Design the sequence.
């Protein structure tokens, strides 16, 4: 799984200097200053709390994986590690609360016993960090999705024992589609608990042939990540997962991939092409406007306007992709002429609070 290994290496190396602000100033250089001012975001002269639904972190589990084939994957350094630097970056960006997820999903290669121990250590570590900073962080549980029944148990344990707010998953399990019936126990548990599932891709390694996105441009990230997200959501729609579990809520990274951008083609598939063999009971747009939630990572006023037009304000939540160096787009939302103050606050704060029951 080269993209997942690359993700972990990048995260391990991603010290605070990798962050960047909207103006292109290195946040790493800012947090090195003796004092870091905490930005207060305001709308209409009134302060609002900003929730970041796309925030990565690492909980090191070297002791758990020592002596196993996964030993090299259990560590972590730099920007992914939770510490004072994380709070400084949040203050600089104007983020009040991060929704933490552990990504990379290298533990999907673990056997049942090892996967149980890895996930428990990760979730306990997340809960400990959140408990020490309850006003700044919430977290999503890791799960061992290669064992769907175990994943369901881990999600329930994370929510009921640890106070975690849902689950974080990849877009596939070792190349296998998550719309297959074998994964229904996990989807059923998330729906029954009433908690969302946050999906983050790993470079579309399940879709494209090896090396297809090599070369200049970091295409495994730039194209591969939204492509994997698009495929993942399309499978859940067309294979009927959302219909089987109408209470299920999925938050898809990177603005839902290309699904909102090319929604018309997706809409037409089941109505004009018999070979599509669609299992969905509603139009794809109906799921995008109800069971699918997306972040704001589009980086342009027109991109954001289009997301709002296709998905609706109520499905969109602010995200940064910390600790990776993407533009900080809080001002993109604040300055959007097509959003009123209530809609801006919903995207920056209210939608996340509602979905996560904060």
Sequence:
């Amino acid at each position: 799984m080269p993209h997942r290994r690359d993700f972990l290496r990048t995260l391990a190396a991603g010290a605070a200097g990798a962050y960047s602000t909207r103006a292109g100033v290195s946040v790493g250089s800012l947090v090195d200053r003796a004092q870091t001012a905490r930005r207060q975001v305001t709308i209409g002269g009134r302060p609002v709390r900003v929730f970041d639904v796309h925030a990565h972190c690492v909980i090191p589990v070297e002791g758990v994986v020592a002596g196993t084939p996964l030993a090299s994957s259990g560590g972590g350094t730099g920007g992914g590690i939770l510490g004072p630097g994380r709070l400084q970056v949040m203050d600089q960006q104007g983020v009040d609360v991060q929704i933490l997820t552990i990504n990379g999903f290298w533990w999907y290669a673990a056997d049942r016993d090892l996967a149980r121990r890895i996930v428990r250590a990760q979730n306990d570590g997340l809960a400990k960090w959140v408990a020490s900073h309850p006003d700044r962080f919430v977290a999503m549980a890791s799960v061992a999705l290669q064992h769907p029944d175990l994943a369901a148990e881990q999600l329930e344990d994370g929510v009921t024992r640890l106070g975690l707010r849902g689950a974080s998953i990849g877009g596939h399990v070792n190349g296998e589609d998550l719309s297959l019936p074998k994964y229904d126990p996990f989807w059923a548990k998330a729906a029954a608990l009433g908690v969302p599932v946050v999906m983050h891709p790993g470079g579309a390694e399940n879709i494209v042939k090896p090396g297809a996105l090599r070369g200049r441009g970091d295409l495994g990230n730039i194209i591969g990540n939204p492509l994997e997200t698009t495929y993942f959501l399309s499978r859940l729609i067309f294979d009927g997962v959302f219909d089987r579990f109408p209470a299920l809520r999925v938050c898809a990274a990177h603005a839902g991939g290309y699904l909102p951008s090319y929604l018309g083609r997706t809409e037409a598939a089941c109505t004009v092409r018999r070979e599509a063999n669609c299992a969905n009971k509603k139009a794809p747009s109906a799921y995008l406007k109800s069971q699918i939630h997306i972040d704001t990572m589009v980086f342009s006023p027109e991109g954001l306007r289009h997301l709002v037009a296709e998905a609706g304000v109520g499905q969109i939540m602010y995200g940064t992709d910390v600790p990776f160096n993407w533009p900080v787009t809080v001002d993109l939302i604040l300055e959007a002429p097509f959003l009123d103050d209530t809609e801006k606050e919903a995207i920056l704060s209210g939608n996340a609070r509602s979905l996560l029951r904060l």
Observations:
- Residues 1-34 have pLDDT under 50 and may be disordered.
- The first strand starts at residue 42 and ends at 43.
- The chain is about 40% helix and 10% strand.
